[in-house]
Fold this protein.
Amino acid sequence: MIAVSKEERARELYDVIRACRMCALAETRTHAVPGEGPLDAEVMFIGEAPGLNEDRQGRPFVGAAGQFLSELIAEAGLRREEVYICNVLKCRPPGNRDPLPGEIEACAEYLDLQIDLVDPLVIVTLGRFSMARWFPQQTISRIHGRPKEVDGRLIVPMYHPAAALHQGALRQVLIDDFRGLRDILARARAGLTAPAAPAAETAAGEPPAATSSKPSPAPQPAASAPPSPAPAAAPGGGAGAAPAGPQQIPLFE
Ligand code: URA
């Protein structure tokens, strides 16, 4: 069998996304926005959908929210060039309206393939549409910044950077949460098999978020879409090593 490199799989996936006509957003987009970043990134950021600037340039988070996201990534001790950035939707909804359920479903397989390909140690969701994949019954104000372990990787729900542009008080919340990513990433690097410290505060009165991680299978996006690769045993190249990482991070269960 011929081995296909990550780069080739990514190129093929991006080509499929750029040509996608699975939903009506194909009629109004200028450019689809597959995502960008190194295919071996430890951290993947997942936003909502391209906005006006992203639609024009074909790149994620290049407008005002993107500028703030770059600052936040620096607060986490990371460089933008070393993380992977993509969105739930690959095409801009007209007028930046909220994504529709059918659009999210039509795009879901692309995000599945990106997660399989990059296989990050940590996924940071930005905003409620991205969060809903892993925390379907939760509200961001209750759980922001608190990681949940899913299939050997940590999922961290964060406010969307654009929220702080409209609501100034969220700016410091986002900065603090992104600073917390340093410890979360250290924990993920050390391996996630350690017993988690008990949650400092539980989401009282709310049912626990589902722990099954992989979203329900979505329809095949296109006949020419590359097949999903076999799931890796341990994300990020092996998180199953003996744990020695920070124990104080409350995991959201
Ligand atoms: N907001 C998003 O959710 N994604 C982008 O790419 C830009 C703005």
